[in-house]
């Protein structure tokens, strides 16, 4: 056994816990999970069957943690894992899985397949089998503070723009406020309309908040590549930043995996509960709506739909909130056939969009979203994840459907915001 | 050994030994899972996990997506197998002898039909394994073995009931021996899912539930 195989096997052994043992014990190889996965439905290639992506981990579980497997090991009957296996499964667990978690809802015996994929990636990292694109993104995250290499300088420039647009100050590094707002790199680089949008909304709703010049990045490449060490370091930076500013809440941005990273994995990574609460921006906006603090006027008659970011909805539990908000501003809001819990991934989640090798496959499986959109015939897609947004824009362009507009929910709401204060002069709705 | 001696052994000491292996084996299987343990989740729960966990144990019995023929054959043979096991008069007699509990039986004509449906559905499941690209790729020797040890008791039971074969006693002995085999291998093959599915569904549902995902 080579050293890297050794490292992979040891990492898998470390990752296998009671839930995983119950999942492998229960799997009857029915293959129903294949129909849940867009990589299978859009290619018809059986190798993309979700549970197959965990075959190596299953072998390790069987050999190490079952009586029958140990007997077979003792008799020398086990098929051992090779370097070639690791290379093959590297593409299966990174290029053809967006960790969207749809399969975890299909499995008749209840296997949480994507829970295992997340852990399988730890073994891939341990054995040096992570895709280059993700390695680079992780390196930039650790060294520069952002997977896209965004620096404080860029943020400050965007804040200046935002202040001009919103006609008011964007709070930066304010100590003792209630909320610390995080952003995703893609928001700072491309979708910066989010900054004036939340500035105006929070101003009207009377939310005391701030951005931080040190702690602004909400994304977490460590979660995508599957390295708890990197993920922990990135979460710790947010915890430190929040504690420094003495905030009560940290707002997770319009980014799917950032939410999973911060809200659900974070405390487990750093080994203790947070001294603050984490809320998703959409969750907060809906709360403000319910409290009567977020008021909009006018509605848009365009036929539009909401694309569910997997990590926010299926894996994160923020499902009704975006719909409540959509209904505030849209008269013709239609759902795709499979939506909410059963929504289909944009194809670029779970680090797939940062993995250049996966690009042709990712673009191919966008056919699922294309068919969904053709079915309902909308002119606008609203979503709440900057990565989904990028993937949707790219996919629509590939399919000559770029007449469909893609927008982020927060900024879309800001268009209809009731502005009471004379300071908020940037209202252009 | 005559076929009568084999039958006497199979339904006496043979069955007892098989049951002991089955029970100890399943205990080991469950312990293999539970002893691995899991880390306490330190993230702040949005909702309780008890309701969604228990609900998922039930709700995953309903099909979600996939191939309807596969779902149908799966239901048919699972239900058929259990009904014949529990409601065929001679089986109830055996439970009475062994555990002193009994309940009303279904008419044998109905049991006969259910047995045929069960076998047909099992054969169709095997057909899917051979022909469907996904099922064929996933299938291992263990899957075919599990199919065989499930099918033989049903088939030999049917043969015994209809007195197929030259020697009724021998066929009946074979039937009970095949049940003994099923019991012995049960905990050490994927057949153990019949118990462990409670855990897998629970973990999945409870995990999603605490995040507020409405499963």
Write a short abstract of this structure.
By secondary structure, chain A is an alpha/beta fold. Chain A has helices spanning 3-15, 18-26, 38-41, 55-65, 67-74, 83-95, 103-106, 113-126, 132-143, 152-166, 185-189, 194-205, 221-225, 228-244, 256-270, 281-290, 320-329, 359-365, 367-376, 386-398, 409-414, and strands spanning 179-181, 209-210, 249-252, 277-280, 300-306, 330-333, 380-383, 405-408.
What are the salient characteristics of this protein?
heterodimer; A: 429 residues; alpha/beta; four-stranded parallel sheet; 21 helices; 50% helix; globular; disordered C terminus; B: 215 residues; mainly alpha; 9 helices
Task: Give a written overview of the molecule.
The complex is a heterodimer of chains A (429) and B (215). Chain A has 429 residues and is an alpha/beta fold. Helix content of chain A is 50%, strand content 7%. Chain A has 21 helices and eight strands. In chain A, the strands form two sheets. In chain A, strands 2-1-3-4 form a four-stranded parallel beta sheet. Chain A has a four-stranded parallel beta sheet with strand order 6-5-7-8, with helices on both faces. In chain A, helix 6 (83-95) packs across helix 8, helix 10 crosses helix 12 and helix 14 crosses helix 15. The longest helix of chain A has 17 residues, at 228-244. With 215 residues, chain B is mainly alpha-helical. In chain B, 74% of the residues lie in helices and 0% in strands. Chain B is built from nine helices and no strands. The N and C termini of chain B lie far apart (57 Å). The interface between A and B is large, with 60 and 60 residues.
Question: Topology, please?
Answer:
The complex is a heterodimer of chains A (429) and B (215).
Chain A: H1 3-15, H2 18-26, H3 38-41, H4 55-65, H5 67-74, H6 83-95, H7 103-106, H8 113-126, H9 132-143, H10 152-166, E1 179-181, H11 185-189, H12 194-205, E2 209-210, H13 221-225, H14 228-244, E3 249-252, H15 256-270, E4 277-280, H16 281-290, E5 300-306, H17 320-329, E6 330-333, H18 359-365, H19 367-376, E7 380-383, H20 386-398, E8 405-408, H21 409-414
Parallel strand pairs in A: 1-2, 1-3, 3-4, 5-6, 5-7, 7-8
Chain B: H1 3-34, H2 50-59, H3 68-87, H4 89-99, H5 108-131, H6 133-138, H7 141-161, H8 168-185, H9 193-210
């Amino acid at each position: 056994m080579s050293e890297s195989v050794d490292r992979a096997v040891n990492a898998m052994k470390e990752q296998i816990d009671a839930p995983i043992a119950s999942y492998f014990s229960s799997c009857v190889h029915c293959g129903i999970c294949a129909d849940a996965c867009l990589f299978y439905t859009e290619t018809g290639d059986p190798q993309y069957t979700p549970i197959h992506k965990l075959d190596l981990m299953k072998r390790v579980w069987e050999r190490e943690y079952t009586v029958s497997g140990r007997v077979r090991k003792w008799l020398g009957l086990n098929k051992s894992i090779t370097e070639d296996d690791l290379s093959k499964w590297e593409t299966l667990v990174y290029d053809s899985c967006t960790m969207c978690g749809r399969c975890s809802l299909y499995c008749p015996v209840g296997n949480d397949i994507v829970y295992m994929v997340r852990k399988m990636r730890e073994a891939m990292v341990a054995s040096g089998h992570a895709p280059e694109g993700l390695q680079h993104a992780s390196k930039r995250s650790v060294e520069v503070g952002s997977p896209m290499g965004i620096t404080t300088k860029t943020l400050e420039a965007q804040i200046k723009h935002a202040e001009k647009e919103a006609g008011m100050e964007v709070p930066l590094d304010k100590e003792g406020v209630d909320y610390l707002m995080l952003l995703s790199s893609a928001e700072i680089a491309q979708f910066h309309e989010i900054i004036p949008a939340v500035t105006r909304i929070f101003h009207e709703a009377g939310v005391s908040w701030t951005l931080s010049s040190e702690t602004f990045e909400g994304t977490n490449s460590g979660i995508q590549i599957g390295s708890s060490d990197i993920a922990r370091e990135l979460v710790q930076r947010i915890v430190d930043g929040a504690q420094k500013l003495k905030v009560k809440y940290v707002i997770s941005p319009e980014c799917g995996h950032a939410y999973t990273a911060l809200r659900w994995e974070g405390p487990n990574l750093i080994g203790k509960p947070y001294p603050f609460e984490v809320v998703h921006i959409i969750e907060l906006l809906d709360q403000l709506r319910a409290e009567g603090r977020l008021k909009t006027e006018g509605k848009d008659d365009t036929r539009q739909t909401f694309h569910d970011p997997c990590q926010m909805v299926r894996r994160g539990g923020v499902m009704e909130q975006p719909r409540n908000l959509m209904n505030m501003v849209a008269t013709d809001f239609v759902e795709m056939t499979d939506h909410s819990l059963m929504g289909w991934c944009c194809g670029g989640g779970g680090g797939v969009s940062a993995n250049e090798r996966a690009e042709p496959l990712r673009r191919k499986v966008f056919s699922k979203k294309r068919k969904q959109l053709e079915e309902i015939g909308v002119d606008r897609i609203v979503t709440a994840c900057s990565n989904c947004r990028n993937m949707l824009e790219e996919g629509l362009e590939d399919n000559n459907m770029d007449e469909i507009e893609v927008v982020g929910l927060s900024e879309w709401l800001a268009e209809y915001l009731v502005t009471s204060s004379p300071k908020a002069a940037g209202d252009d709705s | 050994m005559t076929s009568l001696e084999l039958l006497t052994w199979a339904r006496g000491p043979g069955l007892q030994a098989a049951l002991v292996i089955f029970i100890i084996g399943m205990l080991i299987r469950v312990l293999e899972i539970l002893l691995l343990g899991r880390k306490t989740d330190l993230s702040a729960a949005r909702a309780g996990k008890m309701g969604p966990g228990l609900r998922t144990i039930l709700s995953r019995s309903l099909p979600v997506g996939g191939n309807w023929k596969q779902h149908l054959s799966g239901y048919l043979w699972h239900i058929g197998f259990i009904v014949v096991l529990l409601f065929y008069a001679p089986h109830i007699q055996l439970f009475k002898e062994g555990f002193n509990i009994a309940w009303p039986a279904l008419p044998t004509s109905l049991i006969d039909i259910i047995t045929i449906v069960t076998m047909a559905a099992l054969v169709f499941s095997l057909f899917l394994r051979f022909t469907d690209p996904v099922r064929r790729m996933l299938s291992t020797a263990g899957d075919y073995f599990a199919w065989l040890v499930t099918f033989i008791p049903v088939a030999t039971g049917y043969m015994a009931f209809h007195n197929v074969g030259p020697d009724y006693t021998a066929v009946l002995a074979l039937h009970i021996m095949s049940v003994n085999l099923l019991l012995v291998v049960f905990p050490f093959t994927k057949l153990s899912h019949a118990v462990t599915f409670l855990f897998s569904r629970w973990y999945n549902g409870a995990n999603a539930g605490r995040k507020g995902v409405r499963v």
